[in-house]
Amino acid sequence: MNHSRWKLKREQERGTGHGEPAEARAQRADIRLAMAFAKAVYDRRKELGLSQSDVAERAGLTQAKISRIEGADAVPTLPLLRRLAGALDASLSIALDEEQEEVVFVARTAA
User: Fold this and answer.
1) Residue 33's closest CA among 67, 75, 78, 90?
2) How many CB atoms are closer than 10 A to CB 75?
3) How remote is the C-alpha of 88 from its chain's centroid?
4) Which domains occur in the chain, in start order?
5) Span 52-79, pLDDT tens digits
């Protein structure tokens, strides 16, 4: 097998997850989840027309903490998730499986 075929085969294996250590796959999944959560917070905040400072005030946090959350640099705890859902006037839905993570803030309806 010449070098170009070997390189192509290696790239194909990487694309299908073969040859990647389990730890690397787990880290990749953690990063995807953090990014999905960060995007959900950002999208809901923008939908409401709020600044990071507004959300921080509503949640009893600092603007810097909201910035870290939206930058996928913070690992939220369950109490923090509850505070954010309240601050964003929404319910939080998180669906996890091996291939995909979905994080969605669902607007609360007026009763």
Assistant:
1) 75
2) 12
3) 16
4) 25-107 (1.10.260.40)
5) 999 999 999 999 999 999 999 988 899 9
